[in-house]
């Protein structure tokens, strides 16, 4: 059972998402919150698998809520998915840097929304290749963060190749095809790289890959 926490200051939005999720046998909405501070408290109380968090909220916004969840060792199993009204805005990349597993636009089709929740629950990043490139091209313009790239020297050549392909938005199957290995081996390389780089999930691997210079944005 996938346990979901809804965090959005608009009751109508929460009701719409809940109505969809409640119809699914493998998904349970465990709590709802109207702001980030309440959401953080409910995350600690219910330990959901997924926290769907609006990016703009009163009291505590989605980015800071994400940052606090990611920094709390007791919430290590909570995957934050940012909800936004726009396909691209200034908050999305900052949310990924804060520890979000991905983001969804609120006008997403119902079937795509349900699929995305299940993808996030598996620990996969919700980042389509085209969206990833646009995010990086627009927002990786600041100097490298302190410690960015730390641990890259510990990666094997194959692990570095794998991380680079994750950053390009490839799935495990696509990475396996590209490197002529099995999907299970690709997943193993990814998991080992995540452990060495202290990344929570694939989304953070994407951020680290670009911030460290392992991968460079296209069409700069």
TrEMBL record:
UniProt keyword annotation of Acyltransferase present: no
Gene3D superfamilies associated with the record: 3.40.50.2300
Domain of life: Bacteria
Keywords: DNA-binding, Phosphoprotein, Transcription, Transcription regulation
Keyword Transcription regulation tagged: yes
Domain spans labelled Response regulatory: 3-121
PANTHER family, A to Z: TRANSCRIPTIONAL REGULATORY PROTEIN NARL-RELATED, TWO-COMPONENT RESPONSE REGULATOR
Name of the molecule in the record: Response regulator transcription factor
Species per Swiss-Prot/TrEMBL record: Streptomyces purpurascens
